Amino acid sequence: MENSENIKEMVRQKYSEIALQDKETNSTSCCGATNSCSTEVYNIMSEDYDELKGYHGDADLGLGCGLPTQFAKIKKGDVVLDLGSGAGNDCFVARYETGPEGKVIGVDFTPVMIEKARQNAEKLGFNNVEFRQGDIENLPLTSNSVDVVVSNCVLNLVPDKNQAISEINRVLKPGGHFSISDVVLVGNLPKKLINAAEMYAGCVSGALQKAVYLEIIKLNLFKNITIQKEKPIIIPDEILAKYLSEKEISDFRNSGTGIYSITVYAEKVVCISGGGCC
Description:
Elements: H1 4-19, H2 23-27, H3 68-71, E1 79-83, H4 89-98, E2 103-108, H5 111-124, E3 129-133, E4 146-152, H6 161-171, E5 172-186, H7 191-194, H8 197-201, E6 208-209, H9 210-219, E7 222-232, H10 237-240, H11 246-253, E8 258-268, E9 271-272, E10 276-277
Parallel strand pairs: 1-2, 1-4, 2-3, 4-5, 5-6
Antiparallel strand pairs: 5-8, 7-8, 9-10
């Protein structure tokens, strides 16, 4: 992959295109990437929100890899931040949990997504849900201002994961927590997949090793780190064939490399002046 700014611009362009597609188109493409790389319907990563209260189908672009709001322990009156809020799907589920007395803030990198989310919120009459354009590596929020952070298959798109996790810690109130769904690896992807921009925007080649991902969370002063849900992600051969030969696909399948969606919960460590952290 190229440098950070090039990666960010590629992501912005890809997701500007995705914002104009419907859920069905995204579900038949390579994890939401444009120029469909599958002729059959492969809903590779996303999960079914239909049973979650507060779900509004118009805001669901089918781009997630988990159900972080289901596990986020949101309480009435909480201030909730959704990173990579897209068309507003997880924000609206979170809004049901926090109630009208709470507040939900969605941050997204893509102006077209922000506009779509704002239109959805206005249509639904939600005056305690707001959307801000911003970079997850430099969040447009004050420190110690939110109770809960959620995110769904977004941090793998961020070039500097450590900085993103650091920003999550900064904006959380002391004792606050997050529940984040993301894609991680066990083993090494073939180089051709790592270098594929489409696979990066599709949430695969930008993923970290699982152990590294969890260690970054720990090093950024989080505690009670728990994997709330884990499932394997199987990329169909039809998609892999865009990048790998038949033999390379076979070697990849037999390599022991695994691609997983994990939902991770963690709490911000509370540091007391002169008394250490707990």
